[in-house]
Design goal:
This protein has 172 residues and is mainly alpha-helical. 65% of the residues lie in helices and 0% in strands.
């Protein structure tokens, strides 16, 4: 697992801190992640082990948590940067005029960041003060991401349980 984390995950998620991801992209990354974990753990599809159980057995979190961690870490760096740095100017800058082209990307980086902050129960206004102290920001992000992962896992378990009870009721 340590080799998987050090080699495969770092290569897979290289540069992910500045990606603008849609749900379908995260789903593809999650499928690859689970497939690798099943291969490493020697779990075949015949064994009928759920994805949440695979993550639990391997002692690793879902790909969402890794993506959130890298994105929040990068935003913390940007907020702490001096004002003359180009990444900070690009992050906080606003175009003087214009609009997005037809057929262009619908979601911007800031949009996906706000969605991720809300998913972790963090207000977008927290970006004004919390990242200024690196240790506080790191702890805040760690707590929020672990709570997000617990909620996500609980929702997946409940969804699977509901599906299984529905199948049992239909089979009777």
């Amino acid at each position: 697992m340590e080799v998987y984390r050090a080699v495969v995950l770092t290569t897979l998620l290289f540069g992910s801190e500045c990606w603008t991801l849609y749900r379908r992209h995260i789903k593809q990354l999650e499928q690859f992640h689970i497939r690798c974990l099943r291969k490493i753990a020697g779990i075949r599809w015949h064994d009928r082990v759920s994805n949440t159980r695979v993550l639990e057995m391997c002692g690793i979190s879902g790909i969402d948590a890794f993506l959130l961690q890298s994105q929040f870490r990068w935003v913390g760096h940007i907020v702490r940067m001096p004002d003359f740095r180009i990444p900070k100017q690009a992050f906080f800058g606003q175009p003087a005029s214009g609009c997005r082209l037809q057929g262009g990307p619908v979601r911007r980086y800031k949009d996906s960041l706000k969605i991720n902050l809300r998913a972790c129960d963090l207000a977008p206004s927290v970006l004004q003060t919390a990242p200024l102290d690196g240790n506080v920001w790191r702890q805040c992000c760690s707590d929020a991401i672990s709570a997000f992962e617990e909620r996500r896992t609980a929702a997946l378990v409940a969804k699977r349980k509901a599906r299984k009870t529905l199948l049992l009721q239909e089979g009777r």
